[in-house]
Amino acid sequence: MKQNGFESFANQRIWIIGASSGIGEACARALSNAGAKVAISARRKERLTALENSVQGITLVVPVDITDTAQINSAYQAIAAQWGGIDLLLFVSGVYTPLRADNFDFELARQTVDANLLGPMRAVACVLPDMLKNHSGHIAIVGSVAGYSGLPKALAYGPSKAGIINFCETLYYDLLPEGVSVHMISPGFVATEATAQNDFEMPALITAEEAATEILAGISAGKFDIHFPKRFSGFLKFLRILPYPLYFWFVRRFVRI
User: Fold this and answer.
1) Residue 223 CB contacts under 8 Å (≥ 6 apart), including other chains
2) What CATH number does residue 199 fall under?
C-alpha cells in the first residue's frame, strides 16, 4: 500500500502552522504561487499580516500559540467553518536554543519539548478526527536531522526532534490503512532566525526557499521520509547504523562544534 501525494496544489486547503518566518513563510509563498488556499498561523500576528498583504492566495490568518491546546482547537474550528476542513496540515513551527550539559537549563528543555513535540501532537489531535472520518488528508511535520542521533549543542532540541521521528513513524503505520498520508520532514541546516544563533560553520547550509522546494516536492510525490540536503542528511543516516564507538569517533572528527 502506498500513500497519496498531490498531482497539483491548486485549490487544496492547506493550514501552515509556523508561517511567520523561515521555512514556514517560504512554504506559504510557494503554495500560494501554486494556487493553493492557504491558512497561516503563528504567534506573531504582525508577521502573518505582513505576509498576507504581500502574497495572493493566503485567505486566512489565524494567530495561534502552539503550546496552548485551546488556541489550536479554536484555530482549526475557525478554518473548518470557512473551508469545511483541510487537505494538508503542514506543521513547521518550533524553537531552538543551543544547549549542552555544562549549561543545561531544565526550563529551557521543557519549553523546547513543549513546542517541538507536544505542539505538533496538539495540532494533529485536533485535525485527525475529521481526516479519519473522511478517510483522506495529509499530515506533514517538520522535524530535523538532529533527531537522528545525539549531536553537540542539541541536548533538548535533539530529543524533541527524535520524538517527532517516532511520532511520525507510528502515525504512518496507523494512518496508512485509513487513507490519511503522513510526511516526516527532516531538514539539515537551513538559514533561518533559529540557525542564526549558531556560532559554528553549518555544513550544506541551504536557504528557506530551497527547503520549501524540497518539502513540496516530497509531499507531491507522496513520500513519507523527506530529508535534505541529501549530501548531509544521507551522511547522518549512515552514522545512525554505526556501532557507538565508531559513531562518537565520527561525530568528534567531523562535527566541529
Assistant:
1) 5, 183
2) 3.40.50.720
